[in-house]
Amino acid sequence: MIEMDEDYTRVPGLYGAWDVGMLLEAGRRYRIEDGGRTDDGQALFMVFRRQESGAVR
Q: Higher model confidence: residue 1 or residue 14?
């Protein structure tokens, strides 16, 4: 696993490519890593995010 900046927090769960868009919020930086595969072979991803300094919520 690649070393993570400690400001990143993992979003709980594993996500398919079709789900990632629903997680995105303005003012955040994301890191997406391989999370394995479903029983039928679909790729799953782990999502990590952090608040950007100076970002408006």
A: 14
